[in-house]
Amino acid sequence: MSVRWPFGLRQGGMRSRLIFALDVSSITEAFSLVERLTAEVGMFKVGKQLFLHAGPQIVHGIRERGGEVFLDLKFHDIPRTVAKAAVETTRMGVRMFDVHASGSLEMMQRTVAEVSKVCRGEGLRRPKVLAVTVLTSLNRDDLKRVGVASGVENQVVRLARLAMQAKMDGVVASPQEIAPIRKDCGRGFLIVTPGVRLRGATWEDQKRVMTPEAAIRAGADYLVVGQPIRDAADPVAAAREMVAAMERGLSSPERRGRTSLDPAEP
Ligand code: C5P
Questions:
Q1: Is 132 in the pocket of ligand 1 (CB under 6 A)?
Q2: Does residue 47 line the site of ligand 1, with CB under 6 A?
Q3: What confidence tens digit (pLDDT) does each residue in 246-260 have?
């Protein structure tokens, strides 16, 4: 009989919930990190810098090396353009990608519809489509300047709800937004969280970071971690330490009922 962690996740399952941000500008460095970390993390996040430097071959190269990809290009354009970009992203075989929720309900609905259609028509695996709500670099004053007076948290929750209405799979959210989103959007909605640091690491801005234990306890489904693994003397050991901390958060009783993923999913 297999040993199961509480709440449906298999032992060691948190490895699949760790996303390593591949924020480097060299293909050689990227592939070297992928080769070292494929067995340690669940996914590699490719952002604008690396994608514009290397092109789609970076996605294919990661997949050839056994890795999964979160393509973090944060699409925001008219609905038709984003939906077409999403179709090409899907054909690349990524596991996740994101769009800005502020691009509109229609933009998100059309994206989800076209992605589902191309997957059915071409027999492709359907990626998770995530919404970015309010960028973590924006504060209350930044929002006011663009005509949003309701404050960051209200705007985050409003956009998360809109993403849910559009049948998006989830959101990218900073640590302090996990709890209000989980409360408002329920369990069936993915929360992917950057801004995570191990206890004892240098915290540049204490308010904007959380430990992996706390983020998982609060209800995050996936954590995105870059610098603490990339700049570690031993990135493999750093990734393992992160997974161990996530597992401690998962086994906390406070976590009960807050996970979104089907137990069978990676
Ligand atoms: O800081 P770190 O390298 O761990 O960040 C991982 C990824 O998450 C980066 O790609 C970064 O752009 C993103 N990030 C974010 N919001 C934060 C912190 C990091 O979107 N507050």
A1: no
A2: yes
A3: 999 998 777 655 666
Q: Considering the entire predicted model, what is its pTM?
A: 0.91
- How far is the centre of ligand 1, averaged over its atoms, from the C-alpha of 195 (Å)? 5
74 among known catalytic residues? yes
36-49 pLDDT tens trace: 999 999 999 999 99
Using a 10 angstrom Cβ sphere, with 0-12 exposed, 13-18 middle and 19 or more buried, the burial of residue 202 is exposed
